[in-house]
Amino acid sequence: MNPLLARLNPYPFERWRELTRGLVPNPALRSINLGIGEPKHPAPALLEEALVANLKSLAAYPATAGEPALREACAAWLGRRYGITVDAASQVLPVLGSREALFSFAQTVIDPTRESATVVCPNPFYQIYEGAALLAGARTAFAPSDPARNFAADWSAIDDATWATTQLLYVCSPGNPTGAVMPLDEWARLFELSDRHGFVIASDECYSEIYFRDEAPLGGLEAAAKLGRSDFRNLVAFTSLSKRSNVPGLRSGFVAGDAALLKAFLLYRTYHGSAMSPLVQRASVAAWNDEAHVVANREAYRQKFAAVTPRLAGVLDVALPDAGFYLWAAVPGGNDVAYAQGLLAQYNVTVLPGSLLARSAQGRNPGAGRVRMALVAPLEECLEAADRIVSYTESLTR
After folding, report:
1. Would you place residue 115 in the very low, low, confident or very high pLDDT band (cuts 50, 70, 90)?
2. What are the residues whose beta carbons fall under 8 Å from the beta carbon of 157, sequence distance 6 or more?
3. Statement to judge: residues 114 and 240 lie in one domain
4. Gap between the Cα atoms of 167 and 97, Å rounded
5. Sign of CA dihedral 47, 299, 42, 13
6. Which of 226, 256, 289 lies at the terminal end of a domain, its last residue?
7. Centroid of chain to Cα 183
8. Is the dihedral of CA 278, 283, 288, 294 positive or negative?
9. Which intervals hold domain Aminotransferase class I/classII large (predicted)?
10. CATH of the domain at 377
């Protein structure tokens, strides 16, 4: 067996199952799950129609690089969304959802023969980053979120010696679970560090289309273009239809950026067996070419957050995030695991303890004392969950 498998940590949901083993939720109340970030809004009809219309395409082997029509649709979307120009043939690759690509990208760019190969991650973070780093033979370093800056990652917590051994930096903006969006000056700092030390930046942007203010979140490629880095050197952005179009089961996304990195990534993928089905590719073209369903989806989230956040803010330390579909709430008493266990037992509402989404680094676990709430269910269900959370929280202070 690969000895690196022993370095992997249990996934947060696996740890939560162990922490709730034997716990019996209140049977008088229906179960409401805010713990998993799985979109629940209906998939757009245009995708279903495109899938049905292209069933005969299943008779052909797909190319790993994807059909030109898909790469061109992705490039055109980047142009409309971020005002940037990319070459569809050399700077775009379709992937089987951002999760698969975030993992396999590390296997492409990490050189484990170099001493102390390091991957830097935000903290808390999407655990795929850590698993990808460990299975690539690297070690991890973590930049904690900063509550004073709406939970943006504090990159200054990474010392110069660590940056000097860094080969890959994972950025998540908008962030999971905090919803923080990186501003342009922060991107400029990371690009300067990348130039100085030669590491690659993987920008996870799967939540980019769910936001609550008029200005759309800044993307990594957009930031690079604004800063005169139109070749996107040492930068690859990852995006997906899962959240944007409510189709997590489609497993469709794309990566874009540095052409040299994507050439190497394509070589890896031809052996990895990660070609996207022609059926999925053609449905994806329809999705990337349409914005009406994205606007409607975003409005549905805005309505939920506008209704739920003020209710919870009356009893919890919680505020509207920059973007994404999570609330990142501090709990009374500071014990996030005990709070989530009690909420499930007494009110049959599942939230995810924040400490499970982070690692202890720099002397603390930056997720401790907080819970992540995914507002993915219908509005009425989210409001019912909020009322139960309010009742439970008030009961703790009586």
Report:
1. confident
2. 142, 143, 144, 361, 362
3. yes
4. 23
5. positive
6. 289
7. 17
8. negative
9. 32-389
10. 3.90.1150.10
Q: What is the mean pLDDT of residues 182-204?
A: 97
- Cα–Cα distance between 63 and 368 in angstroms, integer? 45
Residue 364 pairs in a beta bridge with 361
pLDDT tens track for 371-392: 999 999 999 999 999 999 999 9
DSSP conformation letters of 73-127: HHHHHHHHHH-----TTTSEEEESSHHHHHHHHHHHH--TTSTT-EEEEEES--T
67 DSSP 8-state letter: -
Q: Which residue range forms the structural domain that includes residue 244? A: 55-289
Q: Phi and psi of 165, rounded to 5°?
A: -105, 0
Cα(138)–Cα(143) distance, integer angstroms: 16
> Which residues have CB under 8 Å from 342's CB, separation 6+?
392, 396
Q: Identify whether residues 209 and 92 lie together within a single domain.
A: yes
E strands present in 341-387: 349-350, 352-353, 370-374
What CATH number is associated with residue 216?
3.40.640.10
In angstroms, the CA 248 to CA 3 distance is 31
Residue 206 sits in the same domain as residue 177: yes
Instruction: Encode pLDDT of 12-57 as tens digits.
Output: 999 999 999 999 999 999 999 999 999 999 999 999 999 999 999 9
Q: What is the pLDDT of residue 397?
A: 83
